[in-house]
Structures are given as structure tokens and as C-alpha cells.
Amino acid sequence: MRLEMSQDGDSVLLLDARHFPIVICKWEGPPTEALASEYIDWLGLMIERAEFYETRLIHVIEASKIGRPGAIARRILADGAAERKAMHAEKGAVIATYLNPDSAIVRGILAVIRWSLGTDGYELNLTESLRASVTAAVERLAEAGVEAPPDLNPVFYELELDPQVPMSARSSSRMQISKILS
């Protein structure tokens, strides 16, 4: 599992699966249509991986630097989340999602996501920081009886743009993740 970074214009999406079954994403700038699609595809693959290995995962979203998405990107995110829930809810692979919003924009996006998903069987928790989200994710994994990744320390975890991490095109990212799953 790896860290991937994708850029579309001024927007960046970081996808970190190095600490599976805790998967972490970070948005910087407004979600674009391409990045929203990439994110939904990646999350679907992570859920499928959890199902394949008969484990459960926790999803952390770092949204303190997110911008306002356009209508189409919002629709992609809302529809994608609803589709993932419909496809995977029965198996219960996703324990919870932790998100640290920093603005009214993010809270608005959450309203759309909650409206799309409903609240039945979907645990969405808001925190004040990435550290708080990762800490809560580690604790929630333990409560669910799932072993936490040994190399994930919430005190030291950071997810920052790093020029050493190669940018991946949308299609190559999906191919890379697909190879990891196989």
C-alpha cells in the first residue's frame, strides 16, 4: 500500500493507504470532477480490499484546506458515496469515517453526503484536527476488534504535500491500486 498524490489545476488530492485498515485522504483546493472521481474509485478499491481480506476499515478525511467544489464534483461525490454504501453496506467493511472540517463549505458538503447516504449504519464523525481523527480511528479500530496498524502513531502522523511523492494521473492511479489489490 502506498501514498499517492494527484493534481488537477490548483487542486491536490493525497491518498494514503500505507496504514491500512486506516485509509486517509487529504484535499487541498476545491475537489474537481477528475479528483472527485479518482477519490471515489480509490475508496471503492479500499473497501473491496477490506472485504477481500475479511477485515474492516476506517476512513479519515483531512479537509481543513478543501475548497468549494463545483456542482458536478459535488454530484460525483454524493452519488459515489451513495453507490459505495449501497454496494458495500451489507458486508459492513467500513466501521466509520472521521473528518476534520475547517469551514462552512465542508459542513455544506457533509450535509449533501449525509442526505445522500442517510444515517442508517453509516458513522460519520467530525473532529477538530487530523491528529484527532487519526487518534479516534485507532481507538475505534480497537473497539471493533480490528488490529491497528503498528506503524501509525497519531502524534507523529502528518499528510503534507511532498515533492518526492510522484504525481499520478487519474488512470494510472487506478491501475496502481488495482495491481496492489491483486
TrEMBL record:
It comes from the Bacteria. This is Uncharacterized protein. It comes from Plesiocystis pacifica SIR-1.
